[in-house]
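Blinded run. Sample ID left blank on purpose so nobody reads anything into the name before looking at the predicted structure. Input follows.
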Amino acid sequence: MESIAVEMNNVGVNYLHNGNTNDALDMFQGALQTMMYLTQGVVSPNEDSLFTQDRRVKKAQNHLYEYECKRANKKRRNHIKENTTVSNFNGFIFTKAIYIPVNSPTSVQDRSHELQSAVILFNTALAIHLQPGDKKKETAEALYSMSYKLASKVRIPALFPQHGGKVSSDRTKALVRLIMGLLNNMGQINYHLGNFDKSRKQFAALSTFIASLPHINGDYVLAEEKQNMMLNTFLLNSTVAAAAA
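Blinded prediction complete.
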């Protein structure tokens, strides 16, 4: 059943990158509910009668079925493919939803459930963050915070290859992108809401995290995202410091 949650998340990413925020949010909420069932032991992968009764999951399953039907239709294939030209930033907001690698392991020992749930929470928060209104931003910040707590349980140094200390695996890149995106977007929201002390701490944590990263191997997009977020920490933290003075 983990694969269902992963697929729901990844389809939601495609929806969000193509500007379909409402359907993306449905997919992320369905994926999140699925992961909650799994991690709380409500159902096993072979016993999903309770799982299929949840309204949010059923809605996401319907979207997933419609999405797969569209994929089977060659005439619509270009319409639903991932939008690779989408901008990764909207102002200071990191807007790139995160795919869960389909071949990622799911053992309890390597905290994969925490990583997958953290990614889905981030994507859910992002879909809400991009909607207008301070209440939406407050809701998004709370979800980002939950995601960050889960992501922090995953031991990042253990994910780096021993040879060369490079960030190379898809799973490691997803985790690095997740933590950078979480700290950046929480800092942006708190800056927007006037919570400058929290914003300053979050951007300081982002700066420290980025500085601790080893070389990013062959992923120029992730390397560019790292540079842009470091610039965000400088620009927004400088503004906060000026306001405090």
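Unblinding after everyone has recorded impressions. The first strand starts at residue 89 and ends at 90.
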